[in-house]
DNA sequence: CGATAACGTGCATACGTATGAACAAGGAGG
DNA sequence: CCTCCTTGTTCATACGTATGCACGTTATCG
């Protein structure tokens, strides 16, 4: 079986509580005792049991992170900084990769193995946030936000959508299309909203035949492109829900022999590292993924530690248009 | 504070142990009592505390999975199936993303928050496996294996390397190069070994100026290509340590204006989904990632549950060459 | 009808750690 | 010389669940 603090106590010739205090740096323990306990712990390879500690302190010092699908290249770039920032605050990250926020997710999250949660893939219609609130598990929205009020760290997605629309209009595009994210995500909805609004303000129509909706996945872009190009007139520019979708479009364009950007302008959103690959050189909307993740970590830590107990906070980061090689004036301009 | 089994017991008018038994499906509890307990638990939103359960049963029903870097597209494809298969066996996955198997990793892994571990990124010179063995934490090597004996699920990497060499030779290539993985990984080493052996058997030299080593990352391929092409004569074919490296090479080739496969044949290893994208159409060596992950999950579950207690097992999966569009006969053939 | 078995439930306790309170030993001050 | 404080340690117990064992009840059989 495992080594317990009792074993260490026996070897060091002290009581179990003294072992606990010595190793946790309680100032009431004498230096000499600390030395003896440390030595004994070392000799036995003692590692305190997290289960015991959690039970006793009623806190696990772990923060959950819920993402949907790690094979989507977007999420790993969020998870890394989250891990590091939580670590820096003395918390450990516990990653949950629920495909869907399925039945039972709330139960699994509230079994006291985490003190708080970062929701990175919440949908607007999800029942999970309300359920978490009811069960009093502190949580923070990251990237996407839901309808239940809670701390949130997001990008100004409307502004990003506007920036893209303005760029396209300024470049002379008049047949503009969009492959938007799911309606039940705040990111998908707001990017589309801002984009549509700015186009409308510029007096440019966005035809239904030039738009699609779909999950933020490679396949969405890949399958959408041929369908959109079948429209008459075909769009000369496409705004994609995020970079992963845009890269799917670029991949499909290659397959179809469509020249980008000569025949088609493609714009993404997020500026993940892959967007900068020579194979894609994707024009996109950049925001600071790392900063976003770090901020979310900070907020959730403040919640679980009780450092902050006030009203929900909403941190909004600013996006910026990044011009690369998938962006040009239209042939028929 | 949280709802405990005592609260449920009080509401249902039974004792705490009965609640435990009722919810865990102990056959000794009467149907009527089960019904009452269930109802009370439901009404209170009771979720059993994992910490309490772990402490009492001395097992967490959690399996750790240690990977280095999730932004490497290879790993998410391993993690997904692992998660599902562990789930199917009644275990939960706990993902650890240590950048390095740093000091203290062994301690964090042996704090009894996991019953066993899947090592997906072990290096040959790592001290971690030996340390885990000393601390008696069951573990399984996945994809890569180490020197400390333990269950392992791997690909026949030597055979894969041989297959690539034979293909290149059969296609008429004589100036062949390689961008191999790190020497301290079993995958890097074995693929290189098989490749070199088969070339030697065919009487074809592998010049030092045509080879490089580096981590299994995009950047490795991207930076290596120009250096290798500077050799005289330049290689007409390159075997890459894995797909991610090969995609880095393809990306660099695009930047340099090198035509693939007309001027350069590029071969990868793993057949991750991205290899099949139109943008790459990478010829590669396929093995069953999902099967590999599922098998590792099975082995580690057998270990922690005590179903299997015998000698270490080594499961070897067979690779198969997949011909796509980055593979042709050389111009100077 | 009494002995016995089968069934259902409660009691006591273990798991490993942390912590408030009690306590022992020693030193300072009156 | 007694009191009071300081310092370092131990005692007792809590945390929430699971489980061996004892116990009570009812059905079963001789």
From TrEMBL, chains A, B:
Tell me the keywords, alphabetical order: DNA-binding, Transcription, Transcription regulation
What is the organism field in this record? Tamaricihabitans halophyticus
PROSITE patterns hit by this protein: HTH_LACI_2 (PS50932)
Matching entries from SUPFAM superfamilies are given as: lambda repressor-like DNA-binding domains, Periplasmic binding protein-like I
- The HTH lacI-type domain, residue ranges: 3-57
What's the source species' lineage? Bacteria, Bacillati, Actinomycetota, Actinomycetes, Pseudonocardiales
Q: Note the PANTHER family from the entry.
A: HTH-TYPE TRANSCRIPTIONAL REGULATOR GALS, LACI-RELATED TRANSCRIPTIONAL REPRESSOR
Q: Please list the GO terms describing molecular function.
A: DNA-binding transcription factor activity; transcription cis-regulatory region binding
Q: Tell me which SMART domains the record gives.
A: HTH_LACI
In Pfam terms, one family for this protein is LacI
State the source organism's domain of life: Bacteria
| Name recorded for this polypeptide | LacI family transcriptional regulator
Which CDD domains is this protein grouped with? HTH_LacI, PBP1_LacI-like
Q: Which InterPro entries match?
A: HTH_LacI, LacI/GalR-like_sensor, Lambda_DNA-bd_dom_sf, Peripla_BP_I
């Amino acid at each position: 079986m495992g080594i317990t603090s009792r074993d260490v106590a026996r070897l060091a010739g002290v009581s179990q509580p003294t072992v606990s205090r010595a190793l946790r740096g309680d100032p009431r323990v004498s230096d000499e005792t600390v030395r003896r306990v440390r030595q004994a712990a070392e000799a036995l390879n003692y590692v305190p049991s997290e289960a015991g500690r959690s039970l006793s302190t009623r806190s696990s010092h772990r923060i959950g992170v819920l993402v949907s699908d790690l094979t989507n290249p977007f999420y790993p770039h969020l998870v890394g900084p989250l891990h590091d920032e939580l670590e820096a605050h003395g918390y450990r990250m516990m990653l949950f990769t629920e495909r869907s926020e399925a039945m039972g997710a709330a139960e699994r999250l509230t079994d006291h193995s985490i003190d708080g949660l970062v929701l990175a893939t919440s949908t607007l219609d999800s029942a999970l946030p309300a359920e978490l609130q009811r069960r009093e598990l502190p949580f923070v929205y990251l990237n996407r936000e839901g309808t239940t009020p809670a701390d949130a760290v997001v990008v100004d997605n409307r502004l990003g959508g506007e920036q893209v629309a303005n760029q396209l209009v300024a470049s002379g595009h008049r047949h503009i299309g969009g492959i938007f994210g799911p309606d039940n995500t705040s990111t998908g909805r707001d990017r589309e909203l801002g984009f549509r609004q700015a186009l409308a303000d510029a007096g440019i129509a966005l035809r239904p035949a030039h738009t699609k909706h779909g999950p933020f996945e490679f396949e969405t872009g890949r399958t959408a492109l041929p369908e959109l190009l079948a429209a008459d007139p075909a769009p000369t520019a496409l705004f994609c829900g995020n970079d992963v979708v845009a890269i799917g479009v670029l991949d499909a364009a290659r397959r179809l022999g469509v020249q980008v950007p000569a025949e088609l302008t493609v714009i993404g959103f997020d500026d993940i590292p892959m967007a900068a690959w020579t194979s894609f050189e994707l024009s996109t909307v950049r925001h600071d993924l790392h900063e976003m993740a770090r901020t979310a970590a900070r907020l959730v830590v403040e919640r679980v530690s009780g450092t902050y107990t006030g009203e929900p906070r909403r941190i909004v980061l600013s996006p910026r248009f990044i011009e690369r090689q998938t962006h040009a004036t239209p042939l028929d301009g």
